[in-house]
Amino acid sequence: MAEPNDQQQDFGPRMTGITVTKPIVYGDVARYLGAIGKDCDHTHLWSVYLKSADNEDMRGYVRQVTFKLVDSVAESVRFFTEPPYRFVQYGWGEFEVVIKVYFHDPSEKPFIINHQLKLFNPPAAAATTECHLSRVSQTCDKMIFTEPSRWMWERLQEAPSLSQQQLLQEAVETDFEEKEPLTLAAKRKVAREIEEDRVRILVRNAWVKEAMAEVAEELKAAEAAAAR
To answer: Given phi > 0 = left and psi -120 to 50 = alpha, else beta, which region is 147?
Structure first.
């Protein structure tokens, strides 16, 4: 069946009596940054994601996945048109993330998920868990398509599996590398060192000016004494 385009949005008749179910997994992974976080003003490095539970390539029927964060976060809406549907962020607070899955067939309503971002372990778990370990919060769900259009039904049936490379990209990491926060910490350290050097130079210049002024006063006093 030909792909619909802007000029011809004919997705075919509805498939009466047909229901298709697609299992998905969504959630977040958070890593406590400890002392590193103090340098970048955040407590955690975290990632929110959505993926097919069957490792399908959903691009055939999914047009876009959006993640709506709290308004106080920069770029509070993130858009993804291909897997992996995931992003990484620094932060210190927990809030609700609204995940919306949009489909190529506009007659299919977006699938909406309200996911609570969780960074901190519950008090009972925190007492027995090292704070630097990653915390995983994951939920399984299903997208149900009732009497989809013929075009949509075909795409749902024909969805291929992700390639090995895509599977590696889709993998949800439970142990973040510290390279990026360390990079941020290093940048902050360099900035501090530059500022300290600037202050030292200013102080040294001020001392030199003061010393030169004192020498000038002494020379002036000596010349005055010689004139008498």
So the answer is: left
Model confidence, pTM: 0.67
- Domain spans, the chain: 19-176, 177-228
Pick the closest to residue 21 from 198, 148, 120 (CA basis). 148
How would you write the pLDDT of the chain (228 residues) with one tens digit per residue?
444 444 457 899 999 999 999 999 999 988 887 755 555 567 788 899 999 999 999 999 999 999 999 998 888 999 999 999 998 888 888 899 999 999 999 999 999 999 999 887 665 444 444 444 577 888 999 999 999 999 999 999 999 988 877 777 766 554 444 444 444 554 455 455 555 555 555 545 555 455 555 555 656 666 666 666
User: Which option is the CATH number for 19-176: 1.10.10.10, 1.20.1440.230, 2.60.40.1970, 3.40.50.150?
Assistant: 2.60.40.1970
Q: Are 48 and 86 a contacting pair, CB within 8 Å?
A: yes
